[in-house]
Design the sequence.
């Protein structure tokens, strides 16, 4: 999942007729930002309780403590709010991983991958109900083209992290495969396993697959 995975556009005549999610206007005042955040948080809360198809604008607004009119000041519909909610959660994960990558600068490729995949799996598998709901939600609201964009974005993040490794792997395919293994494993864990998850055991299995690939590719360092 990625904050660029679902396009969010301002409302105009073209976008009103589109199925793309829409953001009516960006909150600029502190009170407005607080209302928008409350709507995002209440959306996720109701999502976890009822699932996406069971959510209504009225219920989200009620849980957030704002009016339905306030909802429509910022969001064209529930799909737009869903897109923003995904973006907020994924952006937080991205910031964490960029920090991990920066701290691993100069380490061998295996150490960089271990640090990045360890942080990602700890965050995702540590809150499986939330991330399962967000993963399923993304599949509801995102288009195939948007999914390809967000997938490429995460591959680029891995490539940037590996570019800081010493020795540098010099392989564009490496980042793609590392992300495929990590994303595939975590998404399948979320979709097929019931909480509570044994995060340590699942991380160990993920690292076995990643390290085996790196060693076979001759880039373990």
Sequence:
């Amino acid at each position: 999942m990625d904050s660029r995975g679902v396009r969010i556009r301002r409302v105009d005549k073209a976008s009103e007729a589109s199925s793309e999610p829409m953001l009516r206007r960006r909150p600029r005042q502190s009170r407005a930002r607080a209302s928008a955040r409350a709507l995002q948080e209440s959306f996720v809360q109701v999502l976890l309780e009822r699932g996406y198809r069971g959510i209504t604008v009225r219920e989200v607004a009620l849980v957030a403590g704002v009016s339905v009119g306030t909802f429509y000041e910022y969001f064209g519909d529930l799909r737009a709010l869903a897109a923003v909610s995904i973006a907020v959660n994924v952006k937080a994960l991205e910031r964490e991983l960029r920090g991990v990558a920066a701290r691993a600068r100069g380490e061998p490729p295996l150490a960089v991958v271990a640090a990045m995949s360890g942080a990602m799996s700890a965050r995702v598998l540590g809150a499986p109900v939330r991330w399962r709901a967000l993963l399923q939600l993304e599949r509801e609201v995102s288009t195939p083209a948007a999914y390809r964009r967000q997938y490429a974005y995460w591959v680029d993040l891995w490539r940037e992290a590996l570019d800081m490794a010493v020795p540098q792997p010099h392989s564009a395919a490496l980042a793609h495969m590392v992300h495929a293994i990590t994303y595939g494993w975590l998404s399948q864990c979320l979709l097929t396993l019931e909480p509570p998850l044994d995060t340590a055991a699942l991380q160990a299995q993920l690292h076995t697959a990643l390290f085996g690939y790196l060693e076979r590719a001759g880039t373990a360092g």
Notes: The chain has two domains: 25-74, 89-217. Confidence is low (pLDDT under 50) at residues 1-22.
